[in-house]
Design brief:
The complex is a heterodimer. By secondary structure, chain A is of the alpha/beta class. Chain A contains 11 helices and 11 strands. Chain A folds into 2 domains: 123 residues, Periplasmic binding protein-like II (D-Maltodextrin-Binding Protein, domain 2); 110 residues, Periplasmic binding protein-like II (D-Maltodextrin-Binding Protein, domain 2). Chain A is globular. The N and C termini of chain A lie far apart (78 Å). By secondary structure, chain B is mainly α. Chain B has a single domain, classed as MetI-like fold. Chain B is built from 11 helices and no strands. Chain B is globular, with a radius of gyration of 20 Å. At the A-B interface, α1, β2 and α8 of A face α2 and α7 of B.
């Protein structure tokens, strides 16, 4: 008889644990306010910008913003599937295609920063002296110096491919590493390999203390990195929270959002820049 | 060396500060793993018992399949479940994606084969004469079954602990299905992945140490319960 009693006791304990977990979860995980799902790039999340940008919007709109931070390519895919309500990304060409294909509506420019070429201070490929980004890439390829590519269809990866094309070089060989990593991890890998990489300035600045690499090339107009925000098309996906997505876009492009972005600094340096004139 | 001592110090500081983000991630990890293992146990224990006890054609194939399922990569489970619960998928209307329930669903699929296989092993390791003996002693089918379960309870417990550990330690499913949303679906493992991505290695290792401490405590607790229920 004792065995049965023991088993019953174990069972009831399990049920109790289960119930209390469920109860605790309910209070924890289903707040009354609606949740806006934002797919965005690692650069906006990891730099800390969203940490100052989202709370004022959450207070004003009475909602929670769920941030899913992935590469630009995947963020757009999530929007295409209707798994998020709004995307904040940086790859102008892909964004335009996304809107043209009917996946998104109400695209707006939000801000921009720029890409920089990071490399070892010794700079064996003399990237520092090159007149433009394409020439810098040509020199890296000419020396077959290690180059770490994101290789993940992120906005940074797409920009990198664009520069290789304009340099008329097909990067193939042991020196060209397709990592499949996020920006920060790619910088780590380039540091370990004592090689070069293309990085967005926000991440490059945030990583200054964690890498021996230096910014060797910057300023080429081709390295400009504009961010756009797009609402997922409610006609395709009726379940998306479209009104909230539009409110979010208005907030980002409105006075308050733009002021927060322009005032956001790391180590006293602004990481993102807003457009001086009203955005269309 | 400073790298490692820094990590240990960061871990201590994180624990002592009871950072709300970390508490939330730890609780999410525990809840997800607990719910997954409880859900997985319901079909997996009977399956393990059946495959272990019964003789049927195709039994060897079933054992093989169970064994191989234990090695399914977590990202593959994540991907398959993603395709099920994405708004484009057949279960899209349930709006499960990027919620803790989505991770539980993936975790259940991960833990199930482990529990079933280990229960099956427990059955095969147990004395074959238990069942006939109980029957001849006049025990009814219900009492026979319960007695048998009590007999192999250590094996079942080990199976549950192993499944729990698999869910607690995996990152693929939690990242893909949960989305690593701060304060909501961020688990200890996705937090470690995030900190590594940010280059905050010390914080990452600190979180890892906390997770291992939690796993240790859960195992100790489980062992205590088992010891007390020893006949």
């Amino acid at each position: 008889m004792g065995t049965i009693a023991r088993i019953l006791r174990c069972l009831s304990a399990a049920i109790l644990i289960c119930a209390s977990l469920g109860a605790a979860w309910k209070t924890h995980a289903s707040p009354a306010e609606p949740r806006l799902r934002l797919a965005t790039t690692t650069s906006t999340e990891n730099s800390g910008l969203l940490g100052v940008l989202l709370p004022p919007f959450e207070r004003r709109a009475g909602c929670r913003v769920d941030v899913i931070s992935v590469g630009t390519g995947k963020a757009l895919k999530l929007g295409e599937a209707g798994d998020v309500d709004v995307v904040l990304v940086h790859a102008r060409e892909l964004e335009d295609r996304f809107v043209a294909a009917g996946h998104g509506v109400n695209r707006r420019d939000v801000m921009f920063n720029d890409f920089v070429i990071l490399g070892p201070k010794a700079d064996s490929a003399s990237v520092a002296g090159s007149p433009d980004a394409a020439e810098a890439f040509r020199r890296i390829a000419g020396r077959e110096a290690p180059f770490v590519s994101r290789g993940d269809q992120s906005g940074t990866h797409l920009k990198e491919q664009e520069i290789w094309r304009s340099a008329k070089i097909l990067p193939i060989g042991g020196w060209y590493v397709e990592s499949g990593l996020g920006m920060g991890e790619a910088i780590t890998m380039a540091t370990e390999k004592n090689g070069y990489t293309l990085a967005d300035r926000a991440t490059a600045v945030a990583w200054r203390a964690k890498t021996d690499l230096a910014i060797l090339h910057e300023g080429d107009p081709v390295l400009r990195n504009p961010y756009g925000v797009i609402a997922v098309n409610p006609a395709r996906h009726p379940a998306v929270r479209h009104a909230l997505a539009l409110a979010f876009i208005d907030f980002l492009t409105g006075t308050e959002g733009q002021a927060i972005i322009a005032g956001f600094k790391v180590d006293g340096k602004p990481l993102f820049f807003t457009y001086a004139r009203p955005v269309h | 060396m400073a790298f490692l001592t820094d990590s240990a110090r960061t871990a201590l500081a994180l624990i002592l500060a009871l950072d709300p983000d970390i508490v939330s991630a730890a609780l999410t990890s525990l809840r997800v793993a607990a719910c997954s293992i409880l859900l997985a146990a319901v079909p997996a224990i009977p399956v393990g018992l059946a495959v272990g006890l019964l003789d049927f054609p195709g039994k060897r194939a079933a054992v093989l399949v169970l064994n191989s399922l234990m090695a399914v990569p977590t990202v593959l489970v994540g991907l398959l479940v993603y395709m099920l619960i994405s708004r484009r998928g057949p279960l899209g209307g349930l709006e499960l994606l990027f919620t803790p329930s989505a991770i539980v669903l993936g975790g259940t699929l991960l833990a199930g084969p482990i529990v079933a296989t280990l229960v099956m092993n427990a059955v095969e390791g147990a004395d074959r004469r238990i069942l006939p003996t109980l029957m001849t002693l006049g025990a009814g089918p219900v009492r026979t079954g319960l007695k048998y379960l009590a007999e192999i309870r250590l094996g079942i417990a080990a199976a549950l602990v192993a499944g729990f550990g698999r869910v607690l330690s995996e990152v693929g499913v939690a990242m893909m299905l949960g989305g690593n949303i701060r304060g909501y679906t961020r688990t200890m493992t996705t937090a470690i992945a995030l900190e590594t991505g940010k280059g905050e290695f010390a914080t990452g290792v600190g979180l890892g140490l906390i997770l291992m401490t939690i796993a240790l405590l859960v195992n100790v607790l489980f062992n205590l319960i088992l010891q007390r229920s020893r006949p």
